Amino acid sequence: MAQAKESPKSFSEHYDAESRANVMKIWSWFDLPETRAQRWTMSALARTSKVPVSTLHHVLHGTAEYNPKPKLEAVLAVVNGSVQPKTPEKTVRELPFVETSIYKMVLAAAKRAQRYKNFSVVSAFVGTGKTTAVQRYCEEHPKTILIHATPDMNAAVLLDRLVVITSAHVKVSRFYTRGTRAARMEGVLESLRARNRLLILDEAETVSPSTLEYLRRVRDLADCGVVLAGTERLEGMLRDPRGRFGQISSRVGYWVSAQAIKPEDAHALAAAAFETDGIDLNEELLDAFWQACDGSARVLCEGIIPGVRDYGLSDGRELTPALIFQVTQKVLGFRARRK
Hints:
disordered N terminus
């Protein structure tokens, strides 16, 4: 839950007195008893106000490198809408965040990349919670720039996104409405230099080779850290120092990988989820959730937990290991391997 103590101590030059006052008003709103009772989160406020959550974090932490007034007005429309705002709809993705071993892995990689201004590579099997961990890190560290890769993303698309995110000033002529690629690159570099920013490219294995090469040049010329996050394929792509991406491989100062979440991760995720229902899970139940998810945080949080709630607890059935395995088989269609 957001709290006023997280409010910024300083603001960028783009905040006037009114904007600073509105930021503090929003942080104070998070601490109101009715706001806490209705479990408003930063993500829920972003979704309701239709402001991207990463943008909202920059705006509310005082680090926006642009005029924050339009975004603040959208958020204030929600905050001032009524004394008792409508409770946001609960979804599977609104489960309490847990600092799993995957999150700690991302945290270590990001810190090293930013400290030494080089590359870190995070590769993890699908479903382990890598993207969730990356997004959480970016929410908690406003200087981080997160880019969600799309299949076959090329260098031009990467530059366009960086121009928007960094509010880069691009010199244009009458012949180019967006500026040349070189002009966009120079604008991005000027926005990044000497600002200790960190770039994170998620699902990095899906982009075109030229995209990674451009990102390498951004890192070299802007002197910033870069985290490449992806599936287990990513490490295989980059590891060979004499391979296609040898220039990137030689700049990697931290490699980390994971094939599955750990038992204690599954225990913590399940315990946090059912704590909101007033249910205290014993060791036998925690172990059943771990066995049922087979090392996948996604299967646990998006399949098993809501399945147990919808097809077990909602019918008044007792939460038992047998119920967990039964729901896993009937709802998800596979038989959990008991260990």
